[in-house]
Amino acid sequence: MGVQPERQEGEGGCAVKKRKVAADVTMDLDILDCPVCFHPLRPPIFQCTIGHTICSSCHDKLLDKCHLCSLPTVYNRCHMVEHVVEAIKVACSNGNHGCTARMTYYQREDHEKGCPHAPCYCPLIDCGFSGPTPTLLHHFSSEHEWHSTKVSYKKAFTIHVQVGSAALMGEDGHMFVINMVMEPLGGVISICCAQPHITGSKFKCKLTLSHTETSYSQATEFLVRSSNMHGGLPKDIVPLIVPKLLLSDTLASATAKVCVVLGLTLTRQ
Ligand SMILES: [Zn+2]
Ligand SMILES: [Zn+2]
Ligand SMILES: [Zn+2]
Ligand SMILES: [Zn+2]
To answer: Which of 91, 114, 137 is the endpoint of a domain?
Structure first.
């Protein structure tokens, strides 16, 4: 990119400043953090008499002593740094998932907390794949051979749950992951809703289990936990424990899988 003249002659011979935008500047963003609390600087920004800058909440605490000079000082607004933090625009870190938003450095964290392009993660350890729900669903079936089932809300349906995970696709595009692990007591079944952002639960789930030969029945109802599944499935989930007696081996062969038949109802709150 060539160097543009900074000024042009305007009407009547007055100098008119041209707006210059550079896309190829690299900069260490750490200098835009407050050196006391390490949060991004945002206006109003204050500086000591030497020129050390701090954010307004640290200014309220330090009042008249600079943490760097350790000298009594008088803080003043630093308009130049305020202009700099307003002028620098950074990209959302979900750019590789389709987000084209650009914002000031200090607005980035808030944007990313609600970014509509934020991904969910494959919960399998050592996988690390992330993407929006449809991409993740494709990944689950192609890479990990997970089954997926479409579900309608408020309608009880029967589901065969095997050890491992499977995806349930809600009628409005929400994805749920149902998982069973074997523990000494029996099969532990959990279900969570894949959501990029932490939100209150939007779904209630009812699981029912019955076994006519032993007249055993169990029903549990809970709010479905949401998670982006980063680092695995959430641990603080209400599980359904299926006694070992009720787990059957489907097909007597090398492909036999422990399986349980459950009634499942998902209801949107
Ligand atoms: Zn600060
Ligand atoms: Zn100072
Ligand atoms: Zn974004
Ligand atoms: Zn994966």
So the answer is: 114
